[in-house]
Here is the input.
Amino acid sequence: MNQTDLTVRVVKPLLFVLALVPLALLVWDAFHDGLGANPVETIQRATGDWSLRFLLLTLAVTPLRRWTGWRAAIRVRRMLGLYAFFYACLHFATYVGLDQFFSLRDILDDIVKRPYITVGFTAFVLLIPLALTSTHAMVRRLGGKRWQRLHRLVYFAAGGGVLHFLWLVKADLREPLIYLAVLAILMALRLPLGRGRRKSHSPAAPRSDSNISTEAVRSGP
Amino acid sequence: MLIKRPGRIKPSEITPRQTYIGRRQFMREAAAGAIAATSPLLLSAPAAAGTKLEGVVKGPFGTDETLTPLEDITSYNNFYEFGTGKSDPAKYAGDFKTEPWTIKVLGECGQPGTYDLADFIKPHALEDRVYRLRCVEAWSMVVPWVGIPLAPVLERFQPTSKAKYVAFRTLFDPRQMPGQRRPILDWPYVEGLRIDEAMHPLAIFAVGLYGEVLPNQNGAPLRLVVPWKYGFKSIKSIVAITFTETEPPTTWNQATPGEYGFYSNVNPEVDHPRWSQRKERRIGDLLKRPTLMFNGYAEEVASLYAGMDLRKLY
Here is the structure.
């Protein structure tokens, strides 16, 4: 089995199932009195954590390909990104439904007045167009270059997600700072230095605007 | 800001409530004291968490609200000395040594000294006090504390006329309190009250919960409970009490002065800069409920703050 087959046939299905484990655990706990004294907070916390984790995993794909030679990793990136969006949706739905109980006034108040909610909500909104344009058909319709430009929004979504976490903590910043450090490393690995090295080491096919394809998109953000 | 007080002045309020509550309380205390004096078993020795406390009398200020289950009160705690996660205190406070325990009394008072916990509590009758607890994080509980009112305890030490404030300090012992090994807050945790707040009959030292010795994660062996203020004012595991002339520093105020004031009275009108304080989630409830001024104790304590701008002195 070559690298692509292994990725598509083994790694991807495995990741698909593993990515559902956090949700399955929440559901299990919900039915077994395992969510603690403040279940809404527990759900909110878990879905937020996993949204951010999947976002960072998504952003790890490009550096992973660049530095390890696991080129086929690109085949799981969209799925990881969609899982980040999936958990973000659950996180947002928990906030709207369970935390604020659909009180539009309170929600709008929060979004306008509370910086950590403003930035968290913005990060969530930024993910929506990315999820909507994640299909092959949408990539073709937009064209690789435009698609790529649009999908650079993911950097802002990830930054917003980390800031959202950082700003909601009362005193102990250690955990959000870990996320910030991981994001910083993933961004640093994208610096032009890395790109230059890659060019000199691998015989990358010349790319031009006329050469837009799904493959070009795959080496995007 | 104006303090909203319910309705018109009723004739019964011509006698200040505090006065007649005080009278009733005096009678109750006298009765309780008599029981205590005749009961040799009472408070013979400090005991482990979960041990039944003997001779507890019913105290004032009850509420008929549903009590938060013991399981929730003892598993969902903010006690950063044992970690910042809500379940950390329950996980890491199990081996915490609350015996022997001494309390230093310092500052502007006639009877400073070091008191053994048993001696500190002995002269007073233990009372059941069912109070609402409102955390600054917008959740709340109804907690059946066992404790003793602050005022008679503090009066025993004969505060001088210079004693305008009372400061409290938590134990500093990073060996036992893993949270103190990192500078999350400026350890040891310190808190304070204005002397009239401290002397208010609602303020108690708690030594028990649900009729039993206070579990470590809830601030054993001795903690403050001031139910009209956000939970963090109710300092846990107290080792020192100091009467001061000037406002003492308080830990959360030092950490983030713009978010936590010295007073920190529960106030739905004054938001935490990062979240609303208008509503709270009662542990066990799905829907949030409106937060009440002074956590529902406005009738008892609002007069303490007459003329103060509670927006500025949050």
Notes: The mean pLDDT of chain A is 88. DSSP finds twelve helices and no strands in chain A.
